[in-house]
Design brief:
Length: about 160
């Protein structure tokens, strides 16, 4: 069985993430979306909220599951016997970061491979960081986040005012 993980912060999930997940779900028998959680980082949505949102967005993809993990991604993968990390690549600016991370993971776990998938051209400018900025100032979120994320994001911003 071909399995892979797609790790990230997903704070919040965007249509760009969703597109990658849909595309990899066709290539692998089982895909785990792994929500990373670091105590050093601050998030808009809690890990539990992100998990619930992503599960709702993916309810029509039966071979994709969502998990939260606080440790090293490679440790999660070893415990589950998952050999492949998928990451999305948008513009050139993503490249160095992704290359460093792939090589670090290779150093930690030489048996694990990182595979990069190009963002669809219509999504290459979309990032969770930009989405939060737009939401903070009341900008239009249409076509940027899945429909269920929009009201949650607006509500969250109100709470944070
Ligand atoms: P991280 O904080 O680990 O970078 P993100 O949630 O920002 O996590 O992104 C997770 C993965 O999805 C990364 O590989 C990132 O490059 C990719 N990604 C982010 N936005 C998009 C997008 N619009 N289209 C395709 N891939 C994306």
């Amino acid at each position: 069985m071909k399995t892979a993980i797609y790790p990230g912060s997903f704070d919040p999930i965007t249509v760009g993430h969703l597109d990658i997940i849909k595309r990899i779900s066709k290539l692998y028998d089982k895909v785990t979306v792994l929500i990373s959680y670091s105590q050093q980082k601050s998030y808009l949505f809690s890990a539990a909220e992100r998990k619930q949102i992503i599960e709702e967005c993916l309810k029509n993809l039966p071979n994709v599951s969502v998990e939260v993990y606080q440790g090293l991604t490679v440790d999660f993968m070893r415990a589950r016997n998952i050999p492949v990390i998928i990451r999305g690549l948008r513009a050139v600016v993503d490249f160095e970061y992704e290359m460093a991370m792939a090589n670090m993971n290779r150093k930690l776990a030489p048996d694990i491979e990182t595979i990069l998938m190009f963002a669809s051209p219509e999504h290459y400018y979309i990032s969770s960081r930009a989405i939060k900025e737009i939401a903070r100032f009341g900008g239009r979120l249409d076509d940027l986040v899945p429909d269920i994320v929009k009201p949650l994001l607006i509500q969250k911003m109100k709470e944070h005012l």
